[in-house]
Every structure is written in structure tokens, then in C-alpha cells.
Amino acid sequence: MPVSTDSLVIRSAKSENFQGLCALYAQLISNDIAADDDFRLETFHQILTQHGVDLLVGELAGTLVATCMLIVVPNLTRGCAPFALVENVVTHADWRGSGIGKALLRVATDKAFSAGCFKVMLLSGSANKDAHRFYKNLGFTTSKTGFELRAPGYPARN
User: Fold this and answer.
1) Residues forming a β-bridge with 120
2) In terms of DSSP H, where are the helices of 67-149?
3) How far apart are CA 98 and CA 15, in angstroms?
4) 54-69 burial string, b = 16+ CB within 10 Å, else e?
5) Distance separating alpha carbons of residues 74 and 52, to the nearest angstrom
6) E strand or H helix at 57, and its extent?
7) CB 80: neighbour CB atoms within 10 A?
8) Of 55, 87, 118, 142, whose CB has the highest number of CB atoms within 10 Å?
9) CB contact at 8 A, 55 and 22
10) Is the whole-model pTM more than 0.70?
11) What's the rounded Cα separation, in Å, for the pair 93 and 67?
């Protein structure tokens, strides 16, 4: 699908974006653990009001086509410069490869560095080679090894 970057709007999510975000997250994790709609909505409102969290969305003609979460964390090292985490990065399958994800991640990293962050970190599934190429093309490096410990009941992802 041809995309005009002039028509792409990247901004912070609003309360009316709940359903569109849920649809995007279904593409990110097709077998995700279910949650009651009321609980999901309550959690969404917590995200929107949480200090240091910015849920970014990419929108074309009023339709959400991409999202990521940017979290800025205060820090007592590196001269008290904060660091940032990027999580839940997804572009709608119909729009992958169009530059939307690249634009979204550029906004996220620009926001992080504007907030004084000394680094931006993200994790990617170890088998997701397409995502690895995508992040490396944006300047991310595999300079560290990531570890995770999942709570019981939450399946590992590759």
C-alpha cells in the first residue's frame, strides 16, 4: 500500500484510541492472555495518566496503524540522566515496510533524548530476525544481552 508520510500523524494516545490499540495488540500477540474489557480499559487509563509513560500511536486518515510505548525512568547513575524503554512496538500488517514504524520509533527516540535520556533500550524476540534488522537499521545495536524472568502462567515468546 502506498503511504504518504505527509498524512501520517504520530502523537500520544487518547482515550478514544482504546479499540484501535486493542486491534493492533492482537496482531502483536495473537494468543495473548485474555483480560476482562473493563479491566483492560482501566489499565489503559492508568497508562495514559502514568508519569513517564507515553503511549505513542501512528494514525492515517483517522485509523491507528502503529503504536509503541515509551517509558522514561529516573536514574541515579550517568549524572542522574534517565534512560528509556520502548515496549509493545507494532505496525498493522497491511502497513509494514511502508516507513511508518521507522517514523514512529524516530519520534519515540527523539522524545527520549529530548527528555535527557542517555540511552533507549528495547527487547525483541530472539527469533524475530525481521525485527532485528528493522531495529539495527534505526541505529540500535546488540551491545548487551537481555534477560527476562516471566511470572508463572505467562508463556515465553521467541
Assistant:
1) 84
2) 100-114, 129-137
3) 26
4) bbbbbbbeeebbbbbb
5) 9
6) strand 53-60
7) 10
8) 55
9) no
10) yes
11) 12
Which sign, positive or negative, has the C-alpha torsion 122, 128, 133, 134?
A: negative
- Which pLDDT score, from 0 to 100, does residue 155 have? 76
Q: Which amino acid is at 107?
A: V
Cα 121 from Cα 85, distance rounded (Å): 5
In this structure, are strands 53-60 and 8-12 parallel, antiparallel, or unpaired?
Answer: antiparallel
- Grouping H, G, I as helix, E, B as strand and the rest as coil, residue 40 is helix
Contact 82, 74 (CB under 8 A): yes
pLDDT in tens, the chain (158 residues): 454 557 899 999 999 999 999 999 999 988 888 899 999 999 999 999 999 999 999 999 899 999 999 999 999 999 999 999 999 999 999 999 999 999 999 999 999 999 999 999 999 988 999 999 999 999 999 999 888 898 988 877 76
Q: Are 50 and 13 in contact (CB under 8 A)?
A: no
Q: Are 65 and 58 in contact (CB under 8 A)?
A: yes
Q: Which of 107, 25, 15, 22 is nearest to 58 (CA)?
A: 107
Here the cell at position 48 is: 495514559
